Amino acid sequence: MVVCPERNATNIPNSHDCVQCKFAGKQKYGTDDTCFFTGGRCKKEEQREPAKKALSPEAKGALELWHAVQSQWRMGFSGPTGLDYAAVKATAEVLEINFDANMFSLIQAMEGAMLRDWAAQSEEKAKSKASK
After folding, report:
1. What would the pLDDT profile of 39-71 be if each residue is shown by its tens digit?
2. Quick one: three-class SS letters along 95-132?
3. C-alpha closest to that of 83 among 68, 72, 99
4. pTM, entire model
């Protein structure tokens, strides 16, 4: 059940047809894409949409820098071993992003997550090869 606080906590069954609900909403309220139950936006559709999260300015800078340095991975015999931090710092300067200790730790956290993910993928490939 989907709870709609706008309509006195009316419960909308999960099985209801949104198309028919919007058709009835248009007849009842006179506007397109209006939920019959809420008189506004469909709560089921809102729940299906991913949550919009706001990033802090520092996090936006870290994400921008992260995307910009994806060509700066140091490679070893078994694949990527880490970022080239001299290149990361130079990229931050070009993008006018303050590369302080906090920014460094944010980039390191993303780098570590990426390396762990790649290691897990390598393990899966090795297991699938061994089982053949």
Report:
1. 777 766 766 666 566 788 888 999 999 999 999
2. CCCCCCHHHHHHHHHHHHHHHHHHHHHHHHHHHHHHCC
3. 72
4. 0.58
The alpha helices in 1-132, defined as continuous H runs, are 18-29, 43-48, 57-68, 85-94, 101-130
CA distance 47 to 125: 36
Q: How far, in whole angstroms, is CA 99 from its chain's centroid?
A: 24
**Taking Cα atoms as reference points, which of 69, 16, 66, 67 lies closest to residue 42?**
16
Q: What are phi and psi of 39, to 5 degrees?
A: 75, 10
Q: How far apart are the first and last CA of the chain?
A: 46
Q: How far, in Å, CA of 107 to CA of 121, rounded?
A: 21
Q: Are the beta carbons of 1 and 12 closer than 8 angstroms?
A: yes
